Predict the structure of Cytochrome P450.
Amino acid sequence: MTFQWIVLLMTYYPEMQQKLRQEIESQIGDRMPTHEDRNRCHYVMAFITETLRFRNVAPFGVPHKAVVRSTIGNYTIPENMGVFIYQGIICRNDKDWENAFEFKPERFIDSEGQFITTRPKALIPFGVGRRVCPGEKLAIADLFLVLVRFFQSTQDYEIVLDSNGGIDADPNNANEFAPIEYKVKFMKI
Ligand code: HEM
């Protein structure tokens, strides 16, 4: 689903698609990508990270349970009560993020053009604590490799959002989880 968001966002913002393609062409070219390539593909990493922040595929995580009676502010949570953390909104709240509802990969790029690897405290698409997603590293590694191979195998094309019978696929209006069904066209450059 995250990859569906990535394709939708890159077709919705063609200038970003072009930047992704240019970086992959200049930094990797036609050879097989490796994990180390992540260190030179700053924009690709920022785009993936911003997708994970902006469109959470698991905004409520998994069900948790209070193992002891707990208090948070004025609230008391009894022992054994089921608890969900709405981490989707933590990833997009106005206190921690400037223009939180804007898709902006540049927020993860510093003034020297490098991907910012220090994770902001509100960037928690994989949850936090003991139950944090154990697949996080694998997911990010996969998203990078699949995205690079996707661009390499479509290098003569621009990927364009199909009008899809007038359905509005605007990723900004969408809910979390999965995007609505959309179609793309591969246009020969
Ligand atoms: C973009 C991809 C992924 C996202 C956004 C994601 C997100 C999450 C989130 C938010 C949780 C719940 C954390 C919590 O409630 O504290 C979770 C749990 C989990 N994830 Fe992922 N995940 C992803 C990929 C994967 C992959 C690739 C694997 C395995 C190969 C995986 C395996 C698991 C497992 C087993 C749990 C349950 C952990 C537990 O119950 O303690 N996830 N994931």
